[in-house]
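This part of the workshop introduces the protein records we will be handling. An example says more than a description, so a record of this kind follows:
>
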Amino acid sequence: RKPGRLILTGSLSFSNKIGIRESFTGRSANLRFDSMTFSETTSEAPNLKTIQRYLKMGGMPAVCFLRDTNQISRYWTEWLETSCQKDLIEFSKGRLDPDLAYQILEATCQLELPNATNIARKIKADTRRIKTHLDALEALFLVRNWNADSQSVGKTMYLPFDCGIATYFKADLRRVWQSWVAHQVVNHARALGKKEIRLNYNLSTRGSFADFSFEKDVLLFNDEAYPSALLERTIAALQKRLPGRKITIFSQTDQKSQALGKHVISRPWKDVLQFLPS
């Protein structure tokens, strides 16, 4: 007879749940729980080896501790079948196509610029239909919204929710890394009780690309131990386009951070675990 506390879990954004007409304002709070972060899956110290392992496995509880590649592949196959054939169908009352949703998820992992137009072109489907499916996949927490910042050209793009699924769909290392960083940055802020961080990228008319762009920070992916000449040109272009921003290059190395100039620093991948936009 005493007031209690109820925790209801599910795989759908509450505001999108069909049939709910009560907002429960003042009586409820929405908490989003993503797949587990790196620190939740291991007690080992972060280094290049352990980070690479996490990028491959992801943070889904049923798969991140497995070692057998056949078991991992079977898990994702069955999970995707459930998500697309059951959850999506129930959410959309049968209006959406599970096979098309599967192809869209695959495209978000494989396309260089995975926006609705490019996905529609790859799959050979109507862009409006692709957008409808993307909205549903976002409501089901299967993809993340990834927007162009105010100093950028480009359309809204989408990232898979977990780097493990990106690996399953044979995404390149950059997309796997992007999926991990998005997951880490958003959940780090959430764990500290901060306002959820909006994920932006920066793209110039000449094609210069920054993986993540915040109010004072720009993050760049580097699959080498030290920035290449090509990456240095990208950095120079960003400094002209975004003066005053702190540019951080996350490099595939265990070496210590290195200052490369004013407001430019190269840091090892593991430092993403402590990163929060200033």
